[in-house]
């Protein structure tokens, strides 16, 4: 029986954990099942720069890529780019019938090539706004992983293992996937459609039902914030009781928690999208630019414009010290 060659195409700064999760699932499957003949091949999308320290294992992709039946693009930074020769080789691979996938930020180079247009792709919640703005033709989801026809994607972290278990299940049956899961001491096999964020009660450190309901309402009403009285009415408690619950479990009043939620959402949008500051302020429930800037500065210690410029300037300095970037 011929082994199935699975290629892992690695970009610089790929974390060892991302690769190890996928490789370990295949290794255990080979040991447990005589027909699970997977031959993983590790390839470098770019030549590592001298002096960058320790590098992940891998050989240049030339001469190896075309031998793979499946290829996963693997990156952990959203800035991953595709050189023209590699872009041509990946498109040729797809035309030849090979399936392609992406782990973590590997969705970025795959989307740049147009190979995700019209497909569902699992995008890590940290990159949702940025990815959606850059690649509107891709159906970005907040699921753990997606398997849409011949395109596979996992949002990152432990979802990489979930996707590989799904591959094992489809290739060799659920029994093998279960055996590998048990070997790796995975509590349960998660479905791809499960959401990425941990349950709200775990994030809050509390299972108080009224608190959970109130915070869910806040998260669902960022652009047009509800008043504390409206929230209390929706969760069927008095305003005073709601304030006591927030004080007891979160050590702040509902309006303060709501404001922090909106400001953190605004900061995420500032760093991930090209929307104007006034657009971001309005979409996060602030009535005007000055109102947004004042609240932002009081909470973060800098104005939205200063924060965006500082963070983008820092990123540009790391990528190319000689190049400056406008905020």
Overview of the structural elements:
This protein is α/β, with parallel strands linked by helices and 327 residues long. It has 14 helices and nine strands. It has helices spanning 16-32, 84-95, 107-112, 128-134, 159-172, 174-183, 200-204, 209-220, 228-234, 239-250, 254-272, 277-283, 289-300, 304-319; strands at 4-10, 38-44, 59-60, 70-75, 99-104, 120-122, 139-141, 145-148, 151-154. The strands form two sheets. Strands 3-2-1-4-5-9-8 form a seven-stranded mixed beta sheet. Helix 1 (16-32) runs parallel beside helix 5, helix 1 packs across helix 6 (174-183) and helix 4 (128-134) packs parallel to helix 11. The chain is globular, with a radius of gyration of 23 Å.
Identify the strand order in the major beta sheet. 3-2-1-4-5-9-8
Radius of gyration: 23 Å
Basic shape: globular
Q: Helix/strand-derived class? A: alpha/beta
Question: How much beta, percentage-wise?
Answer: 5-15%
Uncertain regions spanning at least 5 consecutive residues = 316-327
Distance between the termini: 57 Å
Helix content: 40-55%
Order of helices and strands: EHEEEHEHEHEEEHHHHHHHHHH
Kindly report the average pLDDT value.
86
Largest sheet: 7 strands, mixed
Total number of strands:
9
Number of helices: 14
